[in-house]
Amino acid sequence: MLEQLTHVEQAALAALEAAQDEAAIEQWRVAHLGRSAPLMQVFDQLGTLAKEERPAVGRRANEVKKAIEAAFAARSETLRQLTLARSLTSERLDVTLPGRRAPLGRLHPDTQTLRELYHVFGEMGFQVFRSREVETDEYNFQLLNFPVGHPARDMQDTYFVAIGAPRGDNPVVLRTHTSPGQIHAMRAYAAMNPDNPPPVRIVLPGMCYRYEQVTTRHETQFDQLEGLAVGPGITFGDLKGTLADMARRLFGQATRTRFRASYFPFTEPSAEFDIECFLCGGEGCGVCKGSGWLEIGGCGMVHPVVLRNGGYDPKRYTGYAFGLGPQRIAMLKNRIDDIRLFWQNDLRFLEQF
Predict the structure, then answer these.
(1) Which domain holds residue 310?
(2) 110: enclosing H helix or E strand
C-alpha cells in the first residue's frame, strides 16, 4: 500500500506538469483529487487494513494528498500568470492607460429639492422637526379639526394599518399629510413651559400616503414639507411675506405670487398659494396650462381648535401653517411631466440630476 501511494504521487505530479491550460488542469484535478481518484480510493480502503498498518498508511496518504494539493495550487498560479502574460501580449493592452472612473452616487432629485427648501427656510429662522409616518386617527384627523364623520375626511383617502381589526374611533393609519406633526411639535414646545409656551417656527418634512388613483400628477406616496409658526401677534401678512420670500429665493427675485381662497379644516382663513410661471413669465404655456400661474401648496392661519389641541391658548397666540409639495416644485423647476418617475429608480432619469 505504501508503494502504491508513492506511485500515485509520482503519476499525479508528472501529469500535472503536462497540463498547459485551465481546461487541462481542471481535468487533472478531477482525475487525481476527485472522489474517484486513486488517492481517494486508498482512503476508502483504510478500514480494511490490519490495525498495525493503518497508522503508517494513513500518515503517508495524508502526506501525498498535501503534496498533490500544494503542487496543484502552485501550478494553477503559474498557469494564471502565463495566461495573463499571453493576453497582455496578444491583445496589446497598454497597462499605463488610466482606468475607468467608477460612477459616483448622487442625491435623489427629491432630496435635492428638500435640502434647498431647508436652506431657504433655515435662513428665515425655521428649524427642521421630524414626526412619525404611522399615526392614530386622533392625530391625523381629530386633533386637526376633522371630527369622526366629518365630510372633509373624504378629501384624503386613507390607508388603515390594522387590517381586519376593529377600527373604532381611533384606528392606526398611514398619515395622509404632514399636518399631524403640528400637534406633536406644539405639544413638545408647550411641555417646556405649560404656563407660557415658547414660540414655534419649524418645517416638518416627511412621506405621506393616500389610497388614490396613480396618474402622471398623483402618487400613492409623496413628500410634503409642512411649515408652522406660532407666537403672539402672528398675522396672515406674516404668512404672505414668508411664502413670497421663499418663492423669490427659489425661483428668482422677480417672481410674483398670489393667494386664492380655499378651505382646510385645520386653518381659518385658508388659501392656495401660486407663483407666476417662471417658464413663460405669466404669458401662458403648456406647463402652467395657459393660466400663467403654478400652484405650489396650501396655507392659512392655524385654527383656534388646533392651537388649543397643541397646548397653546388661542386668546394669547396665533399662528400660520403651510404645506408644500417638494416633488411638485422639482417637477416645475425641471419640467418633469410624470410624478411616477421619482420612485421608479430608473437610472436614466436619476442621473440627469
Answers:
(1) 109-350
(2) helix 109-123
Cα(299)–Cα(265) distance, rounded to whole angstroms? Answer: 11
Residue 101 is predicted with a pLDDT of 85
Confidence bin at 88 (pLDDT 50/70/90): low
Q: Which residues of 68-101 are buried (b: 16+ CB within 10 A; e: fewer)?
A: beebbeebbeebeeeeeeeeeeeeeeeeeeeeee
pLDDT tens digits, 271-322: 999 988 766 766 777 667 777 888 889 999 999 999 999 999 999 999 999 9
| pLDDT band with cut points at 50, 70 and 90 for residue 54 | confident
Residue corresponding to grid cell 400628477: 217
Mean pLDDT across 105-118: 91
The SS3 assignment for 234 reads coil
CATH number of the domain where residue 306 is located: 3.30.930.10
What pLDDT is recorded for position 96? 84
Neighbour-count burial of 114, counting CB atoms closer than 10 A to its CB (0-12 exposed, 13-18 middle, 19+ buried): buried
Cα distance between residue 170 and residue 238, in whole Å? 35
Backbone angles phi, psi at 136, to 5 degrees: -90, 160
- Give the CA distances from residue 124 to residues 117, 201, 229, 253, in Å, rounded to whole numbers and listed in that order: 11, 9, 11, 16
Distance CA 2, CA 239 (A): 96
Of 32, 26, 2, residue with least CA distance to 14: 32
User: First-to-last CA distance in the chain?
Assistant: 73
Residue 116 falls within a domain, yes or no? yes
Q: How many other C-beta atoms lie within 10 A of the C-beta of residue 297?
A: 20
Same domain, 264 and 336: yes
